[in-house]
Amino acid sequence: MGNQIGITKGLNSWQFQSTYVERAMDNAAYQAAHPDDTLVLAGPARRGSALGGNGTGIQTLLAIGMLQSLSFTQTKPTQPLLAIGSGRSFFVSGKSQTQWSIARLFVNGRNLLRVLYHNFVAAGGDPTAFDDQVALKQKGIFFTNLDSELYYVPFGLGTIFRNKAHDLLGAIYAELSMISSYAIGINAGQNMVLENVTGLSDRLLPWGNIADSAASYMPRATLDEILDFTENPAPVDGEIGDEADTRVTLS
Question: For the chain, which domains are there?
Fold first, then answer.
């Protein structure tokens, strides 16, 4: 390794003024995840159906733009227990629960509820055919009315994380997502109007082998060489982060 900054990988190598912990961080500025390099997509309810389009228009993924905030939270109900005769506690745990929330700028075009149900529209669904109407016309761009039967239909949310070197850091797919609340508010003097949607998902799955459609103009190896940063851990073949595999398909 060309640079003089070491790496603390255990207690014996801990030198806090001259080492980083766990990994070298000279290249952190272009290695870290950033909202600019994060893409959120709406699609089918299950990860296995999110194939990026098969010619029918049913399984296409739609990138969600103008997002101001996005969060996923997984909780796992866990109960501590004690047993007579022991002073030590133990735990029993249940199924994890996934919650998410999205805030998006309200502009002309598809509103947030319409975007989330892109898969329904792409499959030829008619939002005016429900007993409780959700839109004024079949190709309407504004959806509302959570009482509509439409909102009993689940969808999926995919999120892809990259860095400035165009490396794939990770990707997640929120399966069987259902909307639990919708809010839109206006205050005097504010410079924007936001739509806010919260919901639940069955599970938050890893989503690998994402197609890389944007080649880096400045290769990662070149950036590392400029910093004399040449020691990079070899990725496991086929996993996210494998620099040798730059164009793969969705799975």
Answer: 32-207 (2.30.110)
